[in-house]
Amino acid sequence: MQKLTLLIAITVSVTTLNAQTFSGEATYQSATSFDFPMDSTRMSVEQYEMIKKRMASALQKEFILSFNRSASLFNEVEKLEEEGGRGMRMGVSMLSGTGGLVYKNIKESELREQIEFFGKQFLIEDELEDFGWSLGKETKMIGSYTCYKATATREVVNRTFKGGESTTDTGSVDVVAWYTPQVPLSQGPDIYCGLPGLIMEVNFKETTILCTKIVLNKDKELTIEAPKKGEVVSREEYTATILKKMQEMEETYGGRQGQGGRGGRGRPNMTIQISR
């Protein structure tokens, strides 16, 4: 009886929304768990704790998803940064797979991403990804919304820079999403979409993106404009730009080998996801 009542409530809510023109905004919080072993030969305990503190701050972000029936715009809410925070935030965006301005048009199957990389603006033009979602029966409450579980597996390409060398490997990432039919939009945070309801939560790798607030405007249509700033590139061209810059950084740091008494001490060790 409880399940029947819930189904009726959702159906009434969906019918009401479908009968009206509406738009709105959803607020999301993202968090990424990241840890690294301490090397006492390279940093003190104080330096290690300072880096962990900055990483913890940089890994917590807030986003606004503005949407109407056909399009959405996902934008990070800027916050004041500590000294050196810009570089830290750039690295975190690479590691967590979020960042930039993301525009999705469901009707036209259009995806645009406006991203700043090393001081230069890029505008990636692409098609919406078909995630091949598998819909489950499991439910949970997020705020006052009943959410249903969906899963997908995505193929990704990673580039690892370590000890003066770089390697490329392919793998898969499991994605778990929770969507609510109470907001009948095939939209979601970042690049995620394609479910029969607004995506309220996404979990992938070590990152979680969670909706914390929804404001619906049922009587008016919010105009969503696609980003236009930046050099227009394809996904492949942007990936090639990242790899080239990372290789230049690797060669620059690698050239310092032997300075300061330890070979390669200044080299960054990092893995970035070069396909989304």
Features:
single chain, 276 residues, alpha+beta, 13-stranded mixed β-sheet, 4 helices, 13 strands, disordered N terminus
Total number of distinct structural domains: 1
Mean pLDDT across all residues, rounded? 78
Q: Give the fraction of residues assigned to helices.
A: 10-25%
Unreliable spans? 1-19, 92-98, 257-268
Which structural class best describes the helix and strand composition?
alpha+beta
Radius of gyration: 21 Å
List the total number of helices.
4
Terminal CA distance reads: 43 Å
- Strand portion, in percent? 35-45%
Order of helices and strands: HEHEEHEEEEEEEEEHE
Tell how many strands the DSSP assignment holds: 13
Shape: globular
How many strands, what sense, and barrel or not for the largest sheet?
Answer: 13 strands, mixed
Summarize the structure.
It is built from four helices and 13 strands. By secondary structure, it is an alpha+beta fold.
Any overview of this molecule?
This protein is of the alpha+beta class and 276 residues long. The chain has one domain. It is built from four helices and 13 strands. Strands 1, 2, 3, 4, 5, 6, 7, 8, 9, 10, 11, 12 and 13 form a 13-stranded mixed β-sheet that branches. It is globular and about 55 Å long. Mean pLDDT is 78; it is low at 1-19, 92-98 and 257-268.
